[in-house]
Amino acid sequence: MLLAIVFISLASFASAEPGEPVTLHCKFVEKFPQNNWVWYKQRSGQEPQEVAVRLGSKDSPTESSSDLKIRFKINKNFSLTIKQTTKDDEGMYFCGHGKETITFSNGTFLAVAAQPQLNVSVVQSPAWSSVSPGESVTQQCMVHSKTGAAELRVLWFRAAAGQSFPEIIYTHQNSSSRQCEISSSTHSSVYSFSKNNFSHSDAGTYYCAVAACGKIIVSNQASVQLSK
Q1: Could you tell me if 170 and 157 are in contact, meaning their C-beta atoms sit under 8 angstroms apart?
Q2: Domain Ig-like: where (predicted)?
Q3: What angle do CA 190, 195, 196 make, to 5 degrees?
Q4: Is 19 left (phi over 0), alpha (psi -120 to 50) or beta?
Q5: What is the DSSP letter of 66?
Q6: pLDDT tens for residues 122-170?
Q7: Residue 74, SS3?
Q8: DSSP assignment of 146-188, as one string?
């Protein structure tokens, strides 16, 4: 039985336009060449999906299905190339290595969307909070943009030790099917995330990210800790 030893810090972000290739890199491969290696993909609200695996005794990695082999390429350094990105490729990607245990790297969130000029600023508040057990806590994400709110998607993340993957804890998904439109005026919107009955397992670093027009804009970090 494999155990997961996980080191978590803030996730990285990448973006791509539909139809173009994108490569996601796996750190520390050169330091552990004989280990087994895996790539996982996770979409918001879904279980992680294995994308590829390379056994330490083999030179060539293998994709986890014939469909993935057509769409994905695993390079010699175990970086992951998506040959022609689609909206379905959007999500969080993780690579991991190990023999009897698996250590996962930080996640990389891939956003896939058309990419015109974009002007967005994101501010999260409060930057630090101390919460008593059982209390409620609310984080706010202020978004100033020249893109209408219908084209914005705001994602909330939490980074904390002791979990298998960094969490996508909530997504504000707008229902509009319009393409990305840039206007001359600036729009301001406030997105909130609330957590009731706060406990030790909820403590960590929270941040929001705005995905719009193929770009990812990350807020400042906000530390939320349990008061003693």
Answers
A1: no
A2: 1-95, 116-225
A3: 130
A4: left
A5: H
A6: 878 787 788 888 999 888 888 887 655 556 788 888 887 555 556 788 8
A7: strand
A8: EE-GGG-EEEEEEE-TTSSS-EEEEEEE----PPP-EEEEEEE
Q: How far apart are CA 128 and CA 225, in angstroms?
A: 8
Q: Judge contact between 27 and 16, C-beta under 8 A.
A: no
**Number of structural domains in the chain:** 2
Phi first, then psi, for residue 6 (nearest 5°) are -125, 135
Tokens encoding 90: 């959007």
Please provide the distance, in angstroms rounded to a whole number, between the alpha carbons at the two ends of the chain.
Answer: 37
- d(C-alpha 29, C-alpha 33), whole Å: 6
Question: 113, 83, 111, 95: which is closest to 181 by C-alpha?
Answer: 113
Q: What is the CATH number of the domain that holds 155?
A: 2.60.40.10
Question: Are the C-beta atoms of residues 110 and 86 closer than 8 Å to each other?
Answer: no
Contacts of 98 (CB under 8 A, 6+ apart): 2, 5, 35, 36
Helical H segments across 31-82, by residue range: 66-71
Q: Compute CA distances 157 → 67, 205, 223, whole Å.
A: 30, 8, 12
How much is the pTM?
0.51
Asked if 100 and 130 sit in the same domain, the reply is no
Local structure of residue 220 (DSSP, 8 states): P
Q: Give the model confidence (pLDDT) of 90-122 as tens digits.
A: 888 888 877 777 777 777 888 887 655 566 778
